[in-house]
Structure formats: structure tokens, C-alpha cells
Amino acid sequence: MARSVSPIVAFDRRELMQILSVYGRKVGAGEWRDYAMDFLKDRALFSIYARVSERPLFVVEKNPKLRHKQGQYMVVNQQGRILKRGHDLAQVLRVLDPDLMVVG
What we know:
Elements: H1 13-28, E1 34-39, E2 44-49, E3 58-62, E4 73-77, E5 82-86, H2 89-93
Antiparallel strand pairs: 1-2, 2-3, 3-4, 4-5
């Protein structure tokens, strides 16, 4: 019998390009060193690290269940505090690099 596979939430190509644009700039500046992506049943996570062995500095989260409420995108800091939440990923990412204009 075939098992039904639960769909997962993932970043699409446009979203990933926006995130990697900010990430690349910060790596170039020597502020960030590594990242990890997790695709779960209810949300997708892009975790940003200064060093490989520590907790993430920031997590960019996509949670489609919040799409019609506060917005499906958010950035959370190392302490778990939500720094920015919204419907537009480019605007949410500005909390990580305020001088950068992310084109989507």
C-alpha cells in the first residue's frame, strides 16, 4: 500500500533569491558564515549562523497559515524575539540589512 506523502512548505525560487541576496552581502562583509534550510509540514526556515557550532543569529520563517493574518514571513533573532513580520518578504528582510533594497 502506498503511503500518502504530507506536503511540505518551501521557499520558492524568487523568495530564495531574495534571502540569498541579503545572505551573500553579509557573508561578503564577514558578518555571517553559514546557513541551514529546513522544510517542514507547516513552515520553511532559513537559519543564519555566525559560526557553525552555535545557535542561529537569525531565522527567516515562512508560515503560509499566517498569510491572511499578520503575514507569512518573519525574522526571529537568537533569543526568539520576532524582529519583523509581514506579507512582503523584501520588506521583512530589510530588518537584516536596512541599507539594502531587495528587488523581488
